[in-house]
Amino acid sequence: AWTTFHQKRHLTAMIAIDAADESNGCLYMVKGEHTKGLYPHPDSALPPEMCKQWVWHKLLADGGDIAFFDSYTPHMSYENKSNRSRRVHYLTYNPTADGDYRRAYYDDKRRAFPPDIEREKG
């Protein structure tokens, strides 16, 4: 559901290192929206009015679980409010016919979603 990472389409494999549930911010996805194309998302997020119209389904995971989804699948997670880690590894690929966007993709991702150690307070 992202339009600002340059490539037209990508596939992501999410590999859970730790268990993920509602308390530590598991991933949520919207069924059926992957057939409707890419949505604009100013400020690195889908507009709240758009998100409110969908039914979000939680993706519970155990360590070692793998989930695959593409750029057309709206997905999000909430803040980890537990004292448990929610480590995951994301492997993201785009078709070579679209060009090499690896550096731009990860630079944009890091700016939009910096690791906790790089986030500004407030």
Kindly describe this structure.
With 122 residues, the chain is of the alpha+beta class. The chain contains 2 helices and 6 strands, in the order E-E-H-E-E-E-E-H. It has helices at residues 48-52, 102-112; strands at residues 11-16, 27-30, 56-59, 66-70, 75-77, 88-93. A 3-stranded antiparallel β-sheet has the order 4-1-6, with no helix packed on it. It has a 3-stranded antiparallel β-sheet with strand order 3-2-5, with no helix packed on it. The radius of gyration is 15 Å and the shape is globular. It starts with 10 loop residues before the first strand and ends in a 10-residue tail after the last helix. The model has no long low-confidence stretch (mean pLDDT 84).
Number of helices: 2
Helix content estimate: 10-25%
> What is the number of E strands?
6
Category from helices, strands and their pairing: alpha+beta
Task: Write down the overall geometry.
Answer: globular
State the major sheet: 3 strands, antiparallel
The radius of gyration over CA amounts to 15 Å
Strand order of the largest sheet: 4-1-6
Average pLDDT taken over every residue: 84
In percent, how much strand structure appears in the residues? Answer: 15-25%
Query: What is the string of helix and strand elements?
Result: EEHEEEEH
Low-confidence stretches: none
Distance between the termini: 27 Å
